Amino acid sequence: MYHKEKSIQIKNSASALYNNLSVLRIAPRRLTYFTVVHANVVNTVSASWDGLNYSHRQLQSKEPNVATSTSLIMQAAFCVLPSRDLLVVSSQKGIQMYESDGSIMVYWHALDTPEAPTAQAVFARGISAVSDNYICVGVSSGAVLVFDIPSKGSNITLSEVLEEHKEAITDIASECSGSQECLANLVTADDGGNMCVWKSGEEFQLLNKIPGLNITCSSVKLWKGTVLAGYGTGQIRLYEAVTGILHAEVNAHARWIYSLDIAPFSGLLLSAAEDSFVRVWHVSMTPETNSVEIAHLHNECVTDTQICGAKFCDGDGYAFAVTGYDLSEIIRLPSDEPGHSNGKWAAVTGQPWLSTDNIELLENY
């Protein structure tokens, strides 16, 4: 289904952080932006689609009244809103928001840090845009900060703090299918594996809490009303967001999952873990029976690499990119199957190359 092509070199190697890769596709300019975190630096690369031009930029973590901050960055992620795209960086000291190319910092929010040293680390982690004008960022206390984003300018305000979690936030995701019928449009996950499902608005409404059994949920996605969660056990679980019903549980990886991604137009799911494997799955739904199925489509091994980031490069899943701990490159894998050329996937349309020989269909719960 996919093949490796020439990697994109980055200035520093990737840190071993959850979801340590973010991708933003700029179709009008035929560019794709990539961002990877290394210690207290964010490496950004702008790559032209023809593979001929690359532009690199590095962003340092910031803190007030300090020329060069040594605070570690926990995550960098592109946030796409209807009116603008922003690059959000979360660290041990605070939250920075930049224009998507990293050229201008438009907002800085400092975290509350205790005056006396404590055993509890302080940091921000988990970033997602939601609805038309909000960006949510999680913090180590378990709180989720909701920022109201204007259509332009730097008049960004902290509009609400959600305080349902008791453990550090690991990841946040918004409904990515574009469907207006889904009641839930935000999911937050923490170190204990607990997830909260929300409906955004002037005041965010808690719809459901899904218990985690003290197993870290390191990466989460929300698609067509279904929560897709990756865990430290290597499992992927699919829950109905509003009811918490478990639809499927997959023993997907031998070691800790670091990243999930979903291609919203095709239902392709990407999972990446410490076991050096990236796997592609297909998620399908049958509304009449309220059932969800997941099928395994493809494996890719990055030998001797602890994979820490994996993202599709487009909404259909025609290509994806991977980062690994201590790798100073972004590995790109475009599709080489017939589905790529005609703009449709066999997983969705029944192309002949997707046969029962290369599908592992997993039982619904």
Automatic annotation (TrEMBL):
Kindly give the PROSITE patterns that the UniProt entry links to this protein. Answer: WD_REPEATS_2, WD_REPEATS_REGION
Pfam families, sorted = WDR54
Domain WD repeat-containing protein 54 beta-propeller residue range list: 1-334
Q: Where are the WD repeats?
A: 250-291
Keyword Transit peptide on entry: no
Tell me if S-adenosyl-L-methionine is a UniProt keyword of this record: no
Keyword annotations of the record: Repeat, WD repeat
Name the PANTHER family on file.
POC1 CENTRIOLAR PROTEIN HOMOLOG, WD REPEAT-CONTAINING PROTEIN 55
Its recorded name reads: WD repeat-containing protein 54 beta-propeller domain-containing protein
